[in-house]
Amino acid sequence: MRLAPDRTELAQARQRVRATLAGWGLNDPAAHFELAMSELVTNALLHGEGRIDVTVELRGDQVRLAVEDEGFGPEPIQLREPSSTGGGGWGLHLVDGISDTWGAHRIPGHTLVWMERRLPRT
Prior knowledge:
CATH class: Alpha Beta
Structural class: alpha+beta
Number of domains: 1
Number of strands: 5
Helix content: 25-40%
CATH superfamily: Histidine kinase-like ATPase, C-terminal domain
């Protein structure tokens, strides 16, 4: 799904992720993926530029979320010490805690941040 670089799009994106997961019969873990997607999109809104593309994929027994924007900052994307005064830094820590693995790639004109989480065995 493509989002405009506007915070008002975040609620719609969460609903679409929830609907996609429900369509795959994945209602129980949906809240985790919604939270991770929300954090990744928020980071793209705060630190990225231009359009934002959100991808949700079911790959065997795992879900992959990816958020891409048109920004290309000079610093690598990594976990940083969160601010105790509300200055941010918690988003990627949440994604790190929710996911089995995550990463970020910067290529000229784009930034892609992704996470993957294996589904619980039933």
